[in-house]
Write a structure and sequence with these properties.
Helix content is 36%, strand content 18%. It is of the alpha/beta class and 208 residues long.
């Protein structure tokens, strides 16, 4: 089976890279020798890290390669994470919402099935964003979201044709791997039970 994965990959974001790793590992567990292509901002690094094919995700180059990958794929997996939102600037073809939905549209033009996978939807506040979601969201063959709010928002936006399934964030299916990097860097013995929390400013919320 040939699968293309589209998401916020290749930017060095630890959370999104964990999502990608979890998707790839679970696909390889469930399917027999899937051929996986990832649209990435750093295709060489993504290919090397995960042992997959990778194509530059932006529109500045490699557009023929993106179309070729979609045309030859059985399925486009759009996700996971919070891709479909217009908090960041959403103009005609710029911003995350138009980008990811345009990839969906290209896949459908190529005759490829589309799955919105383990996504957190929203916020979608602009008229343009709502229109895009209604038109292109209904092109998906299957939608899974990571919370009930996302399902309700999609339905409110007029996405009704594909089945919408509430599941969980794919990182909960992350395959455990031995990694001694943190133990070595923190001079730990290796038998401690640790939880790491990384906080960052979130828009105007800085009171924490």
């Amino acid at each position: 089976m040939k699968i293309v994965i589209s998401g916020f990959y290749g930017f060095g974001n630890t959370g999104d890279e964990a999502i990608l790793e979890a998707i790839i590992d679970n696909l390889r567990t469930e399917l027999s020798n899937p051929t996986i292509t990832v649209f990435s901002f750093s295709p060489e690094q993504t290919a090397k890290t995960h042992g997959v094919k990778s194509v530059y995700r932006g529109w500045r180059r490699d557009n023929k390669e993106k179309i070729h990958a979609l045309r030859n794929a059985d399925l486009l997996v759009s996700g996971g994470g919070g891709l479909l939102q217009d908090v960041y600037p959403t103009r005609f073809l710029f911003g995350p919402l138009p980008y990811y939905l345009l990839i969906v549209f290209l896949a459908k033009l190529c005759g490829t099935k589309v799955m919105f996978f383990s996504q957190g939807i929203g916020p979608v506040n602009t008229k343009w964003g709502k229109l895009l979601m209604r038109v292109f969201g209904n092109m998906a063959n299957l939608i899974t979201v990571r919370d009930e709010y996302s399902k309700q928002l999609l339905q409110h936006l007029g996405v009704k044709k594909p089945e919408i399934v509430v599941t969980a964030d794919i990182v909960f299916a992350f395959h455990h791997k031995t990694d001694d990097a943190c133990i070595n860097s923190l001079l730990l013995q290796g038998n401690e039970q640790l939880i790491a929390v990384s906080v960052r400013p979130w828009f105007h919320h800085r009171d924490y």
